[in-house]
Amino acid sequence: MNFWTFLQQNWSEMLTLIREHLSLVLISTLVAVVIGLPTGILLTRKQSLRNPVLGIANIMQTIPSLALFGFLIPLPFIGGIGARTAIVALVLYALLPIIRNTVTGILGVDRNVREAAVAMGMTNSQILWQVELPLAMSVILTGIRVAMVISVGVTTIAAAVGAGGLGVYIFRGLRQYDNNLLLAGALPAALMALAADFLVGLLEQRFAVGSKKRVSVWSKTVLALFALALVLGAYGTWRAWRSPSRAAATGERVIIASKDFTESVLLAEIAAQMLESRGVAVERQFELGGNLPHDALVAGRADLYPEYTGTAYTAILGHPPITDPRAVYDQVKQEYAQKFNLDVSPPLGFENTFAILVRGADARRLGLKTISDAAPHAPKWRAGFGQDFMSRADGYPGFSRTYGLKFEEQPREMDLSLTYIALASGKVDLIAGNSTEGRIAALDLVQLADDRHYFPPYEAVYILRKEALLRVPVLAEVLAKLANAISTEEMRQLNYEVDANKRNPVDVVREWIQKRGFK
Amino acid sequence: MSEPINSALVEFRDVSYTVPSLPSPIISNLNLKVLRGETLVLVGESGCGKTTTLRLINRLLLPTTGQVLVEDKPTSEWNPIRLRRQTGYVIQEAGLFPHYTVERNIGLVPALEGWEESRIKNRVLELLSLVGLEAERFAQRYPGELSGGQRQRVGVARALAADPPLLLLDEPFGALDPLTRASLQNEFAELSDSLGKTAVFVTHDLREALRLGSRIGLMRAGRLAVLETPERFLESDDKYARAYIETLQLQDDHGITK
């Protein structure tokens, strides 16, 4: 499918995402100005506060956005999942340039001019509004411009907390290795950044000091646009704040979350459709980044999400990997109940473990069946792993030790979904993929057996809040139906439909439920 | 101001001004009367306290001890805004607002005082012609589009705008070339004669002081060393004053003819 056809088929969804993106940027910039400008002015009055406050704003900017989202989710009122949290994070990022430029701009006003203003008998507020702010305005606008351009970029990550925006396409495009999606997300975002830069730049010129100010049609238009954006932003803020709080669903309503990869989305969608067909209202908070779904459950912002026992055991509970699936499951169920008051559903029937993959051609030529077979070839190979695999307890360090693997160079860290393509196209020679990845067969990749049983079992389960089970009794029925219901082959097939055939997960899941007669 | 002529408009009574970070006071025990209608010129070297004296009058500073009286009322009891609006203030480089046109700069204090627009407009035109700038050419310009001398004229016009009884001028012509300075000095001398303003004028240029002052106050280390009319100042036998006068004569063998 070429990009043009893609646009024709998806333009309405794309427009929605652009609108979401734009409103996130405008609202957060507006809020940042409302907070940052007075703060900056205050800092020019209270010298003792200047360094501490600028320091804090500086630190805010260095916090990685996913980590910041993680902090925000459990917080009352400003936290949770969705646009509100994203806006709070975006505001925190936008504050520094606005505050800093306000301070710089006002302190940069000529001493003689300020002294003349005082000596003319201007009051403090007259000096601020008639002298300092107008003279500092172009510097302040530069700050706002920088903040807006940063916001356009950071907003793409807001998709990780379910806030929507163009990041949805970018993340999905990365995951499915779909250039159309990537382009459809990145191109409008880039244009938006350029437009913000250009338009606020025009405003800046309008406020540049000491030249003839002919109010051109252009700057009138820009001022009008800016005013319009402010009004829309204010309205959006009001709407966002009035929208029902996402803290804890009530009654026959369940909030389902998922991680940001296809299989997680599919499993979440299966649970969602099963519940919906039983008359339960479902709110979907899919494609959340990192461990945010777990954070959201613990904070009571979501009720259920798909997880793997091995991930829960090692990444969340922090235990060293073990290989007995039964023991892992029992331990996770017990500790989750104790530590988080969360329940673990019966296993769904398939395992998703790290699959060590090589190209089919290599496997056949070298007669490779197991990882041990491949170890002697490793010094001539390059490896590519997802960030996750490189860092987690059951990941690369233990893996390379167990099999005595040494690669030609330090393994490349890349997005998990890109590793399959990197392997197939010969950029790397060995990767750690997911065993249920749909594209394994399609790309002619071969999974090497874990003959030393290094990887802990990753049985798919649902994690859910105990309170949700009490509130929505039909949940138990659904979970019982799904116990042992999905085989590894079925899961691969479902993944393939979405990742390789670019089909909508909602349709894929609906067909599967019908085929299985689950209703 | 219905006071009799020659009463003091400004009076310093035992005024000292110190800042914690400096060992010696900037002003110590200053007693001084500025009479209505006179132009009192303060001279002295940098750091002698001339500018501080000026800033004590319009309450940009308050005395550490003693009192500065303006119209017989201590500045500490004046509303600073009211006091400053009826005190014209001119500084070096004029301190014009770069984002205002010449017209708005001059009309600033009248606008703050809430004058009607047409009245401000007339006043601005009047002042522009008073300081020798053609209204059609200059009213709509920005300070950045003026020469140094033109800016200084606008600065003087701005200080005069609300017709204040008192003018404070801090080296207003200090940054100008000698020719422009001389012509502005002449114009200022005519203006202050015809308008009957009381003025306190700070300069380090004795020639300027002799030309403009009805009295000259020589300051030294925060004290008033000599306070005399120009004629008697030239004949002063104060050692410091003589040294000052001699520098003048070194520059100009013809001596000073007032």
Summarize this structure briefly.
The complex is a heterodimer of chains A (about 525) and B (about 260). By secondary structure, chain A is α/β, with parallel strands linked by helices.
Structure commentary:
The complex is a heterodimer of chains A (519) and B (258). Chain A has 519 residues and is α/β, with parallel strands linked by helices. Chain A folds into three domains: 3-242, Orthogonal Bundle (MetI-like fold), CATH 1.10.3720; 253-351 and 458-516, D-Maltodextrin-Binding Protein, domain 2; 354-448, 3-Layer(aba) Sandwich (D-Maltodextrin-Binding Protein, domain 2), CATH 3.40.190.120. Chain A contains 23 helices and ten strands. In chain A, the strands form three sheets. In chain A, strands 7-6-8-5-9 form a five-stranded mixed sheet. Chain A has a three-stranded antiparallel sheet with strand order 3-10-4. Chain A has a two-stranded parallel ribbon with strand order 1-2. Chain B is an alpha/beta fold and 258 residues long. Helix content of chain B is 38%, strand content 23%. In chain B, strand 4 and strand 5 (73-74) form a beta hairpin. In chain B, helix 5 crosses helix 7. Chains A and B meet through helix 5 and helix 6 of A and helix 2, strand 6 and helix 4 of B.
Task: Provide the descriptors you would attach to this structure in a database record.
heterodimer, A: 519 residues, MetI-like fold, D-Maltodextrin-Binding Protein, domain 2, 3 domains, 23 helices, B: 258 residues, alpha/beta, four-stranded antiparallel β-sheet, 11 helices
Q: Please state the second-level CATH architecture of the largest domain in chain A.
A: Orthogonal Bundle
Number of helices of chain B: 11
Termini separation of chain A (Å)? 33 Å
What is the topology, as strand order, of the major beta sheet of chain A? 7-6-8-5-9
What is the mean predicted local confidence, pLDDT of chain B?
87
Q: For the largest beta sheet of chain B, what order do the strands appear in spatially? A: 6-7-8-3-9-10
Mean pLDDT of chain A: 86
CATH topology title of the largest domain in chain A: MetI-like fold
Overall SS class of chain A: alpha/beta
Identify the most extensive interface between protein chains.
A-B, 20 and 28 residues
- Please describe the biggest sheet of chain A, giving its number of strands, its sense, and whether it closes into a barrel: 5 strands, mixed
The CATH class of the largest domain in chain A is Mainly Alpha
Provide the low-confidence segments of chain A as ranges.
244-249
Oligomer: heterodimer
Q: What general form of chain A does the structure show?
A: elongated
Q: What structural category arises from helix and sheet content of chain B?
A: alpha/beta
Distance between the termini of chain B: 31 Å
Backbone shape of chain B: globular
